[in-house]
Amino acid sequence: MRLTALAVAVLFASSCGIMSAGDDDTADGATDVLRVSCFGNDQRIQRVETAIAAFEEANDGVEVQLECTGFANYFDKLATQFAARDAPDVVMLNSQVLGEYAERGALHELGDSVDTSKFSEVAAAEGTTADGRFGVAAGLNTMTVLANREIFDAAGVELPDDSTWTWDQYATLAATITGQGAENLYGSDAPNFGPAFELWLRQQGSEMFTEDGELGFTASDVTDFFVYVQGLAQSGAIPPASIITEQQEALEQSGVATNKDAMGWFWNSAIGAVSKASGADIVILRPPSATGSSADAGLFFKPDSLWTISGDAEHKDHAEAFIDFMVNSTEAGLATLTSLGIPANSDVRAAIAAEVTGSDKVSLEYIDEISDELGPQRPALPSGAGIVDTTFHRFAMEVLFDRLTPDAAAGQLVEELDAALEK
Amino acid sequence: MKHLVLIGACLLMIYPLVWMVVSSLRPEGEVFRQSGLLLTDPQPENYARGWDALRYPFGHYLLNSLAVVAFSIIGNLVSCSMAAYAFARQNFRGRRLLFAIMLVSIMLPLHVVIVPQYVLFSSLGWVNTLLPLVLPKFLATDAFFVFLMVQFIRGIPRELDEAARIDGAGHVVIFTRIILPLLVPALATTTIFTFIWTWNDFLTPLIYLTSPEAYTVPVALRSFVDAQGETSWAALFSMSVVSLLPVFIAFLVGQRLLVKGIATTGLK
Amino acid sequence: MSVDAELRQLRAGRGGRSSTDRSAYGFLAPWIIGLVVITAGPIIASLVLSFTDYNLLQDPSWIGLDNFRQMLSDERLHHSLRVTVTYVVLGVPLQLGLALAIAVLLNRGMRGLALYRSVLYLPSLLGGSVAVAILWRQIFGTEGMINRALSYVGIDGIGWISDPRTALYSIIALHVWTFGAPMVIFLAGLRQIPTTYYEAASVDGAGRWHSFRHITLPLLTPIIFFNVVLQIISAFQAFTQAFIISGGTGGPSDSTLFYTLYLYEKGFGQLDMGYAAALAWLLLVIIAVFTAINFYVAKFWVFYDN
């Protein structure tokens, strides 16, 4: 009986908390409530909260209600809220889906309301579509090759010169490490297929998508890339397909992080997790190029997250002010550091440089280093293009599992993406 | 011999839990480098750190989950047993049709119902309250349990009802005095399953609870993870183990109720 | 009256129905309110949406039967159906058979019973959290528990869930492994069998097998029937294990692309909720057919004690 009484008491107490959660803040009629949604782990969200406190301090009469969750199913929740016309005012999206939301009329056009004058031209272009500006990069990321120095040393191979290496050299190097290293060690993880192909394509002067939202490549472009990938497998440069599958669930499970592969393809934000998991010295490298000059490598920024405003937002002015604060104020920058990606605003970047340490510092310096080597800005992904990375992954794996030839896989891939873009 | 087979089977069954506990004691990041059960450097402090790693102490999320679970159990027990009694023991127009509709209602995959249901609940202003999570349970929306209890009620000899009816008992009396006591095994099963399924449910609380204060355990666990950056695996694993404790205790208690069923039916 | 008897009546035309019990609607009130207020709306909405092009961000637009037409030539859909049917056909009988066998074994008076029951239920408690996803992948992985065990007998294992040839069967094995839920239901059903029956049988000198065959099994048929119906329904909707093990992709190489996984990818991954709704209704029809067959066949083997 005592147990039951206790259970009832606990129940009551906790349900009071849960029932009233987040509802009693509009009592004061003078404040406008701004709903902000974002994704990320709890640490990152706590950093965003610190920035928000600073924003609220600077903006009397605005109260931010933060609605954050982990990345898992974040977009499912968001799409559901949009469908019910119950979307938050400020919405964090990523570059995969921004085009879709913008094209479907779900987002408020920002115009010049958020200052991007301190952004590089390429960084400023992120979040714009053919119809205007709909999002601002919360932080920048770029595709890199991470190398595990200890495996290089053990195999007796020098780290490559990342400003001059080519795809062929990459393949040879990886195969050499596999050959000279210990058993069950490989020269390379499988490339991160979608982004790697995008670099490959940009080095030939094409883009994934045209300005009109069509595919910017043909099946034969993909075939070439798949043949290259297949070559990596045949020479032993990358592990067998089933091992690759096992390595791709979490950053910490990757071959580089588990000290099994010498090199792997990651967004620069991954370096912290990979370094920590491996315990080894992880070096950040530019991806290879076709010509042997990193200036031609077609590097690009891909924001991990972008700030946008829902088309139905009640207080668009506050929302714009919020985004401006988040991307341009030093205060917000010092609160979030590199947790949302490397800040795009160069002043903010300079301001936080002294504050960041370890792998964050490496990332920050790397982004600064490559800033003047970037290729042309990439057009926003059109609607339907959100599946491009998963589709590339699926068909590349079909090739690696020897279930489709590069030719057939490329053909089906183009067909599927075409159909998705048409929808 | 029988015990040997059972012990062998138990080892297989217990392995997942042992692996979880061992992983929760590993140094940060080692989970993926060590795949066996060998543990050289246990880190019990993972639990202390994990408990306080999120915005609220982990106990906060446990209490939230307990609240949802408790209401859900009460709701399912009351509403499903009532509906089951009607379906199993009473005559009324449309019974066959309503029973079929009830079964059909659980044949549609959850993912296409989410959006219309959210539209419904948000138009009622119930987002960020417990209502979308627990109110449906009070309305017998989980046909699984209704059907389960229908089958159990059918196993109860009708002579018992008839005898009571001859003594002048109405349906309410028959239901509460005769059927419910004999339904204990099914009620225990319902309690156990409602506990486990509600406790582990991730998507519903994720979608309906917007403020972190209201998060339940599975939502809180997901917020250890960062797909693009660092995840606190040690904290995640330790709290995952902690989150298994209440379900395990619930099962231990619930299965004792299952045993009670014997005593009750033995009385007959 | 049993459902199968009702079905018989349905075919034979109406009649034979005794007077309506008005208090039945009182007992049913919560369920009826739930149906009208909570359940029916979204179900009907999804049916309507299946005839539309709906991306969640814009209002749906009517496209008639286009979604269903598209399903005819959708090869990934056909593939996912094959995957799901394989899972149902192998997973359900294996899991139920094991659950029943163990429940019967555990029902005997035996030392440490509570402990065995709890331990056997353990894998079914785990749910689908991130840590559990890693756990299952680790167990079935190239360097996982299974391959370690195999290496003791000199077998070099493969990556069971990362090889397209074995991934689906690994998930089926996992499903069988988590037999706790039907086991508990069987146990509860066994508890309900009046002990007097067994006493009478033992007076008659019946052996164990005889009393199992002639008392336990017949009296348990309503519960077996329940498990068969519900396990088939839920196996067709299987989602969580495949989702967490394949990282949501249904991979490797679509080998674990369950029907609902594909539906989820269409609905939320590609924001093609109209098509997802159409997929859902096809699945509903498939499940309904299986369930109807189940109810029809039930009258030949399910025994009700009244």
TrEMBL record, chain C:
Superkingdom per UniProt: Bacteria
BP GO terms, sorted: transmembrane transport
GO CC list: plasma membrane
Family: Belongs to the binding-protein-dependent transport system permease family.
Protein name (database record): Sugar ABC transporter permease
Membrane topology recorded in Swiss-Prot or TrEMBL: Multi-pass membrane protein
Keyword Membrane: yes
The entry's keywords: Cell membrane, Membrane, Transmembrane, Transmembrane helix, Transport
